[in-house]
Amino acid sequence: MSSLKLVCEVALMAALGRAVLRRLPGVAPGANPFLRLLDWMVQPAERVAGRAMVPALLGLWLLATAAKIGLCLAQGGCR
Predict the structure, then answer these.
(1) Cα–Cα distance for residue pair 30/35, rounded to 1 Å
(2) What is the DSSP string of the chain?
(3) Is the overall model pTM greater than 0.85, yes or no?
(4) Rg (Cα) of the chain, in Å, rounded?
(5) With a cut of 50, which residues of the chain have pLDDT below it?
């Protein structure tokens, strides 16, 4: 579950960073290497979920977090 949670977090942060960069004035999408890197990181999630990528990732992240908390409580605590 931790791996799934981590993948969701990385994809969500990359999507957020990409959205912020695209709204900045003077940022050319094809010329900015950091924006191209963020696009590359988000592409797999976009292929799977399409337009519903962010809600799907948030839902998956919430499920993974709940499962991790459940495992921690069953074991008596997380480390």
Answers:
(1) 8
(2) -HHHHHHHHHHHHHHHHHHHHHHSTT--TTT-HHHHHHHHHHHHHHHHHGGGHHHHHHHHHHHHHHHHHHHHHHHT---
(3) no
(4) 16
(5) none
